[in-house]
Amino acid sequence: MPDKTASRFDSEAATWDSNPTTVRSSALFFDAIKARFPQLARGAEKKKRALEIGCGTGLLSVHLAPLLDEYLCFDPSQGMIDVLESKIPSLPSGTHLKAFKELLTEPDSPSLGGKGVDYAFSHLTLHHIPDMQSSIDCLAATLNPGGFLIMSDFEHSPTSELFHPKHKHHDVERHGVVGDEIRGMMEKAGLKGVKVEHSFDLPKSVEGGSERDFAFLICMGRKQ
């Protein structure tokens, strides 16, 4: 994620959680994860470790962190990290969530403490990343054997550029992701059993005052 994008998110951090569309998309992704990984939903992964890139204010993180032993959050925006850290005291007792102002570009980052993770998550981040393959390679390399990479973003379509207003187009690298392209990148990163499928539709107001539904993909792969 370019520095200019991090600066834009710094300025939006204080009001980020007041956007119902942003809150709703994270909730829908959380539901999609629980439906496909019931072991997480029933609390059977409490001894497992996870990370999330592009965590923002933690709209997804605060739901997932209590289900795992340790949850590491990464975001290049200090404003977003500050808001997330303000939520930590309110999390359920025993939740271990740590936040880092970092993009996470290397799997041996000191922030990981020399250990791998069992889950790596990403939501609405891929469309901001210039080199998706490098990012997916990095995330795959952080996984312990048997670990899962689980990513979500809106799908590219003829109208997907409406997802962002025109004055924000300079902050995005692509207007949505292409399923076959992401699948190929995950397989190239060495992940097995890769699945890329529709997870939910998100209604969103667009410029001009109308509302459009945007399809979201969930992308999943496992490290052997």
Architecture overview:
The protein is globular and about 50 Å long. 29% of the residues lie in helices and 27% in strands. The model has no long low-confidence stretch (mean pLDDT 95). It has 7 helices and 7 strands; from the N terminus they run αααβαβαββαβαββ. It has a single domain, classed as 3-Layer(aba) Sandwich (Rossmann fold). 41% of the residues are buried. It is α/β, with parallel strands linked by helices and 224 residues long. It has a 7-stranded mixed beta sheet with strand order 3-2-1-4-5-7-6. The chain starts with a helix and ends with a strand.
Question: Do you know the CATH architecture?
Answer: 3-Layer(aba) Sandwich
Strand elements, count: 7
Helix fraction bin: 25-40%
Q: Which stretches are low in confidence, meaning pLDDT under 50 for 5 or more residues running? A: none
Strand content: 25-35%
Number of helices: 7
Widest sheet: strand order? 3-2-1-4-5-7-6
Number of domains: 1
Order of helices and strands: HHHEHEHEEHEHEE
CATH topology: Rossmann fold
CATH classification class: Alpha Beta
The CATH superfamily bears the name Vaccinia Virus protein VP39
Characterize the overall form.
globular
Radius of gyration: 16 Å
Distance between the termini: 28 Å
